[in-house]
Amino acid sequence: MDLEVDRRDLHHVRVVDVPAAELHTGQARLKVDSFALTSNNITYAVFGDMLRYWDVFPAADDDGGTEWGRVPVWGFADVVESTVGALSVGTRVYGYLPMSTDVVITPGRFDERGFSDVADHRADLAAAYNRYAFTAVDPVYSAEHEAHHAVLWPLFFTAFVIDDFLDDTLIGTGRLGGDDGSGTVLISSASSKTAIGAAFLLSQRTGLHVVGLTSPGNAAFVAELGCYHEVVTYDALHLLPDGVAAFVDIAGDQVVTRAVHQHYGDRLLHSMIVGGTHWDVQAQSTALPPGPLPGPVPEFFFAPTQLAKRAKEWGRAGLEVRTVHAWEAYRTWVAGWLRFRASSGPAEVEHTYRELLAGRVDATIGHVCTMGPS
pLDDT tier at 287 (50, 70, 90 boundaries)? Predict the structure, then answer.
């Protein structure tokens, strides 16, 4: 059973119940146990063509010609069938999954920590999206914190790489921040979990002033988190601080982006596109003055690129030590405000997806889903 989305109209969804595909030699079947749904998954759908997220779990078109797709999610699955000797039935893994009850993969490139799906259609995709970790030996896994892992780990890992990229290119080079506290990092969609993770890490760096950009309705929550030094609402962007700055754009709202660029101009050292939580506001851009944005050209941030750089420089062990240490501190901190809610069965999962699509989710709740019954 699969939840599929119209790639040209994200509000148009369907649930299809197809017979389980017969396994071929070299394949295995994963039973999808649980997965998280967050605004990050909406970003996957919005940028599905540009970054090939739709290619991970292809869906067949229907007779009407609709181009259907399966939105990737992060979660846990168990091996229920295997033709691969190195992968035993009963093995539990964490990785990229579809919103489905099961998925067939082609396991390969095994090591002591896990394996990759080496199916032809995934060969050219980022390695991080093809990797499945054995939970039994995963250093960030604990059975009692599976909900935290599903909801927060991929978002926090992205936040970790955002923080590292800014340190690598701006903070560590002395261009932003420092003892005089002259550097500002602006983060839009400040109530989103990727933004919160980035703010948590950046706020611990010397001389940075971390500013959360958010809606008036979320301002109190964002301020109470304590990881932002200042909160500015979208209707008060004229109050942005002065000095040099970097922009981490998780909202993808062109109105906000232009306001930030116009305020800082050449004092904006970097403009990073991370997500598209405000994916449905593009029509507002027609009211904006024409012409190029002042300051730097916004650049799409693809976390696997910086991750590959650091893996080469630090080695896998060095990268692991840094991420595990940061993750444990973050997981402890979020326990003070984050709750989890379960969605079981296609109808509930579809409802949660639609709530995320409409931006009607409580930022204090993490959604953990399963396509099967509870």
Answer: very low
What one-letter code names the amino acid at 107? P
The CA distance from 193 to 41, in Å, is 12
Residue 307 has pLDDT above 50, yes or no: yes
Return the CATH number of the domain spanning residue range 154-303: 3.40.50.720
What is the pTM for the complete model shown?
Answer: 0.84
Instruction: Give the separation between CA 205 and CA 11, rounded to whole angstroms.
Output: 40
Domain borders along the chain are 2-138+339-370, 154-303
Separation of first and last alpha carbons in the chain: 15
**Distance between CA atoms of 178 and 289, rounded to whole angstroms?**
35
pLDDT band at 288 (very low <50, low <70, confident <90, very high): very low
Q: Is the pLDDT of residue 1 over 80?
A: yes
HEC profile for the chain? CEEEEECCEEEEEEEECCCCCCCCCCCEEEEEEEEEECHHHHHHHHCCCCCCHHHCCECCCCCCCCCEECCEEEEEEEEEEECCCCCCCCCEEEEEEECECEEEECEEEEECCEEEECCHHHCCCCHHHHEEEEHHHCCCCCHHHHHHHHHHHHHHHHHHHHHHHHHHHHHCCCCCCCCCCCEEEEECCCCCHHHHHHHHHHCCCCCEEEEEEECHHHHHHHHHHCCCCEEEEHHHHHHCCCCEEEEEECCCCHHHHHHHHHHHHHHEEEEEECCCCCHHHHHHHHHCCCCCCCCCCCEECCHHHHHHHHHHHHHHHHHHHHHHHHHHHHHHHHCCCCEEEEEEHHHHHHHHHHHHHCCCCCCCEEEEEECCCC
Token pair of 127 as six digits: 């390695």
Q: Cα separation of 193 and 243, whole Å?
A: 27
In the predicted structure, residue 286 carries a pLDDT above the cut 70: no
Instruction: State which fold the 2-138+339-370 domain adopts.
Output: Quinone Oxidoreductase; Chain A, domain 1 (3.90.180)
> Residue 117: beta bridge partners?
107
- Cβ–Cβ < 8 Å for 95, 134: no
